């Protein structure tokens, strides 16, 4: 099946990782390809390195991507990540593949919507595919079996709390 976790609320990547841990608990192989994230500061990535059968690859720079001000290097690394993910999906070597922040990559113009739709159309039935990130194009909903929208009601950022180690990264 194809799953989408989107919305402006916190927890999309966390939900996908939870699903991945559940799959690993049943001895399945999991792959997470992260787009637009290129730093090893995230606590979940550090922890996942210690979990057998849960592979994580990052295809992003250490700098923040600015919509409308894309750098050639950002586009190049994102395309490399997409081709890598596509190859791994088609190999059928993974039970679950998570394309983390792919929705934002589409919204920012780093990956063409048509390329992602083509991937969804051709995704092997043996692979559970999860797409995360804000701003999911509605066109992708048609190809998904599950769409969860996580909405922000209240967030500590509104009170000036930013990025708490161990909680937010």
What's a concise summary of this model?
The chain has 169 residues and is of the alpha/beta class. The chain has 5 helices and 6 strands.
Shape: globular
Report the structural category: alpha/beta
Averaged pLDDT? 94
Helix content, binned percent: 25-40%
Strand content: 15-25%
Give me the strand/helix succession: EHEHEHEHHEE
Q: What is the count of DSSP helices, taking H or I runs of 4+ residues?
A: 5
- Using only C-alpha atoms, the radius of gyration works out to 15 Å
Q: How many E-type strands?
A: 6
- The end-to-end distance, rounded to whole angstroms, is 28 Å
The strand order across the widest sheet is 3-2-4-5-1-6
Total tally of structural domains: 1
CATH topology: Rossmann fold
Level-2 CATH architecture: 3-Layer(aba) Sandwich
Biggest sheet descriptor: 6 strands, parallel
Residue stretches low in confidence (pLDDT < 50, at least 5 long) are none
CATH superfamily: P-loop containing nucleotide triphosphate hydrolases
CATH class: Alpha Beta
